Amino acid sequence: MIDRIKTMLKADKTKVILDQAIFSGTSFITMLILARALGLYEFGIFASVQLYTFLLMSISGAFVIQPMQVLYGKSLDKSAYIASTIFIQSGAAILMAIVMLLAYLLAVLFGFSWASILIPAGAYAIVTIFYDYVRKRLLVEDRLDQLIIIDALMSFVQLVIAVLTYFFHLSVDHVLGLMSLGLIPGIMYGVALMSDNFNLLDIRKYTFEHMTQARWLAPTAIVQWMTSNFFVASSGLYLGVAALGAFRLVQTLFGLINILLQGLESYVLPQAAIRFQRTTDEAYLYLKNLTKRSILPMGIILGLMFVFADYIIIWVGGYAYIEYGFVIRWMVILYVFILINYPVRILIRLHEMNHLFLFGYILSFVFSLISAHYLLSNHQLIGAIIGLGINQIILFAIWQYSLNKKEISLWKSFI
User: Fold this and answer.
1) How far apart are CA 220 and CA 362, in angstroms?
2) Model pTM?
C-alpha cells in the first residue's frame, strides 16, 4: 500500500495536479485576503490591474507560450529551441515596458489622476507575464519537480504579502510592487535552469516561426479575452472600480467551479477520445452518463450559493461587500447556462471542429460591443451578467446548430 502511494506521488499526473492545486489555491486565498485588506475601492484597482494583465498575458502567450507548446515537440535540437524562447519572451517584455512607459508619460502630461498607479501596475504585469512563461516552459520541458518548487515559493511569498497588507494596511501601490518583487526569485530560478545552447541564428529562426503562428493565435486570444471579460472591464468604466472589484471577487469565488470544470475537461476529453476511436456510441454514452452524474452535485452547490448569497459575500469579502450579494445569485443563473453548454463544448473538441470556437467568440464579442452600453447603463452589474449569459446562449446556438447539421447529438435518448 505504501509503495503504491509512493508510486502515485511520483507520477507526472499527480505532480501536475499538485502544482495546479498550489497555484490556484494560493491565488484564491490571496484574493480573499486582499479583498478584506484593501477595501472595496483599492481592491477594485487591484482587480482592474489584474484583469488587464490577463489580457497582456493572453497576447504574450499567443506569441511565445502557445507556439512553444507545439514547436518544442517538433524541434530536433530541443535545448537550443527552448533556450531561444527566453529571448523571444524578453523582447516581448521590453516592448510592453516601452508601451507602458509611454502611457505613463502621456498620463502625467495630461494630468490624469491615475498616472501614479501605472508604474507599479506595469511592473506587476510584466513580471507576472514573465513568471507565467517560466511556469509554462518548465511544464513543456517536463521539469515538474522544479515547477512545484517555484510555485510553492511564489505561493508562500504571495500569502505573506497578503497577510502583511491585512495587518499593516498597505496601499494597492505597495501590494503591486511587493508582488512584483516576490515573483523575481522564481523567474531567476527558471532562467538559471536554461541551457546556453543557442546562437543568434537560432533566435532569428525561432522568432520568425513564433511570429508566423501568432498571426492567428493572437487575434483569437484577444477575441476570446474580450468575449469573456468585455462586460467585466466595461463595468469598471461605467460603474466605477468598486463595482468591478466586487464583480471580480464573485468571479474569484466561482473560479473554484471553473477549476473543477477545467479539471474534468482535461480528464474527460482524452477518455472520451479513446472511446470515440472504438465507436461513436460508446463515447456518447460515456459523456451522457458523466453529465447525468454531475447534474446533482453541481445543482446542490449552485442552489446553496443562491440561497446563502448574502452570507457568502460577507464571509469572503467582509461587510463592505454586503450590498453585492445579488451578484452571486445572478452568477449562479449564468453558471446554469455554462454547465448546459459544457457537454456541447466537449463534443466540438471531440469532433475537432475547433474553428467554431473562434467563430462563436467573434459573434459573442460583436454582441458585447453592441449591447454593453444599454445593459450597463440601465441594469448595472446585473446587465453585465445578463450580457455574459446571452454570450453563452450565442455560443450554444452556434455550436449546437453546427453539430445538428452533421447529425451529431448528445441529447437524443438522453433521459
Assistant:
1) 9
2) 0.86
